[in-house]
Amino acid sequence: MKPIFRSDTDHPGITVIDPIQRRQFPIRTSEPVHPVSIDTDQFYFPVDNATEIVTTNLVLPHTVIAHVRTVNGDVLTKAEDFAYEQLPEGEYVIELNAPIGIYLRVTGNLTIASSANRMEFDFGTKTRVKIGARSYHEQPGTTVTTTTEPRDVMTAISTFGSALKTLSCERSLPSLRGHPPKIEFGDQLRVPDEVSLPDTGVRIELPPELSMIYPASSLAYYLGADIVPSDDPKLVTDRGFVHPLDHSGRGFEGEIERVLKQLLFLDCVTRTEGFYRIPLHERQVIEPYVDLSFNELYERDLSEQLETYLSVPYGAIRKHTPTWLLSTTVTDDAANLEAIPYLVNNLSIISMKCEKSRREPMPETPKPIDSFFRGTSAKQRGQKREEAGSYVASSRANSLEQAWLGRGMPIGANKIIKKAFENKLERSSSTEGIDITVICNESEMSPEYDAGDNLYGKRDELEFDIDVHRNLSVDELESVLTSPTDFVHYIGHIKDGEFICSDGGLDAESVDDVAVDTFLLNGCRSYEQGVELINSGSIGGIVTYSEIANKSAIKIGRTIARLLNRGFSLRSALTIARDQQIVGNQYIVVGDGSIEIAQSESGTPVLCLLATNDGERYDLQLTTYPTVDSGMGSLFTPFISDTEEYYLSGGDIETFRVEKDTLTRFLSLEQIPLVVDGEFTWSTDLNFETL
Questions:
Q1: What is the pTM of this model?
Q2: What is the pLDDT at residue 429?
């Protein structure tokens, strides 16, 4: 479904809506407008839908990065916070870095003025403005059928590169990497005729074993490479270049990881010679230490770039590469293959673990700090609950987030469930606001949600519909779970594998066609109920393994709610809560942990660490959390005075030393989670006078 343009009735303007990703971006106008559909071929960059309005000016709800280009795509200027740009009469295409890909095309005079929280485009007189929109949503374009025979699996994964929208270094931009084809099992290998394999001249040679194939899948996708059988693992080009993948120190998986990180990083630097000629921080810091001519590299084909990139010692760039978003431990079970395309779509680093590996001890139950827990021990229910007590640990922690694909209950990692991704592809589109459902089935737990506190929905540019239910019966709870909603925040007891209601208990296994997209089940031992919700239609959720004390659960629930409201995914919200010791390993994500319930105002969610330097200045450290839309390879610009550079998103960017006025202005842009001298808080709760 394409983005749509809706005239606003409360005030003059238009709202751009992505019904699939459920993103909204309002644009105010100087007078009421009446959108008229136009062709989509007028913006140089591809768009899914386009309209035309007549207005004297446009006002955005908050400042974004805006590139002003010629109609041929060449950049004329860039505007962001506190900008003032006047351009003479001409024809311009303006690219907005918004939650939806938006392009404006105008002919005439153009003045751009912005403050910390507002951006205006003024044309001086009534002007026809063409608006194009492109959804960041991607889904598999086709399905490849394969057997479990490793050589067939190699061929199936070799089709992933068909989803790349370009073979240039611009494929390092998430929006130019399409979703790999789905994989399903059959009695023989079948590759649909519409799958067009890219001719990159690159192949990955591996022993035909699943334990070697799975870790290479993200690299094969990014390079559009064929995976072929061989005795020794190596990366080969048709120019005769050979790069061994069995590094003596890093091992096979470590070398795959190094190669993927190095290639994407240097592609991001090289693409600054193309359509995005920007002052990239990472280019400036590595150029003195690498003997590379990026303008020449930009013109070379992929196999030539690959050979040049890998000639650079990794040590020369390692500390400047972004922290990877996701690493996933995968067990050597053939059934896991069907979930691999969804991990590859996130460019996950994949490592292997044998199914027979050692089981970990159960996460420690927190000590009681108040009068009651939120449930009692869950009973075991035969084969249905056979995973209970089978705890496992992921292999790697060199990423912002960790996941686990396979049997067992992971400690401190997202439990990947393939059904969750299928549910996400099948969910209905929506042009409405964000639906939040809060269920409080225990009066003593009500402080976790206070309707007057605006825990959810305090966003001027987004529409929220908040429904609060208290003390539901079994039938009422089942009705809520089968009614479409974006997010359910459950506050209450879970006992013996059932939600406790006013008149009994409800087991989610008995509920067909769950219509809840995402959830937080903030009760004791809610893991099994969360898995059942995924199996019946949900996409992802946060659950618990063990008993949780009520006072702790209130703090946890409120913190996670606010993080989700600010655009963090389920997985990154819980990662932050765990890193700040707000939660322990008794909370995990099940299903697709990358899903978000709201969009980030800045495009990329960020956590700030603040420390007093000398009483007059402050050290401000920013940690970025890439999303599916703004994934690895995306850009981040902090709206801090005098900051002209762009940064690659992913983990920590440099520390800024700022004056109090600059800090106050930055933290007032939006509600930002931050850690002040080791204590977790929010920018809106900070007393700037006592800093």
A1: 0.86
A2: 63
